[in-house]
Amino acid sequence: MYHSNYLNAIVQVDEFLLGTVLGEDAGIGPWSGLDADRCQGNASNGKARKVRVLVAKPTLNGHDREVRMAALTFLDAGFEVIYMGCRQTPEQILSAAIQEDVDLIGLNILDGEDGQYFPRVLELLKKNKAEDISVIGLGIFPTEDIHRLKDMGIKEIFEPDARPTDIIDWAGSNVRSR
Description:
Elements: H1 4-22, E1 52-57, H2 65-76, E2 80-86, H3 90-99, E3 104-109, H4 114-127, E4 134-139, H5 143-152, E5 156-158, H6 164-174
Parallel strand pairs: 1-2, 1-3, 3-4, 4-5
């Protein structure tokens, strides 16, 4: 699995930093008041399972603080998280998404890097008949790209000013287990 060892290694440090740097208003951590029931899906086999979220950074940029915070936001809210980290190709992301049976892919990018990665991930989802996996953008996006990405099939864009609770509220209302 992609998430267990690597994510556990960063969780302790990031939880400390999030609490120290962001404080109680951050909406992260035990003080967040997030409702874990929102991350429950409605699996077709009749047994509800948690919504599974894959979080990755498909760019060559190694600044991974935002993608780790996104993973922790979902994890803290009770979602199952598959954390892939940085420098992942669209093919690696798709392979992991299918293997891990995820319901949502969160891709973190910096300004202007979305042009090649988002279309490729969507193309691979379609090619592999996995279009029911929702894709969201996390990061910095040129204003002119946001509408283009949504028209292309990206379900939502969360820029740095989005509160963690905004992301969780959206996912809880718009994503169900497959």
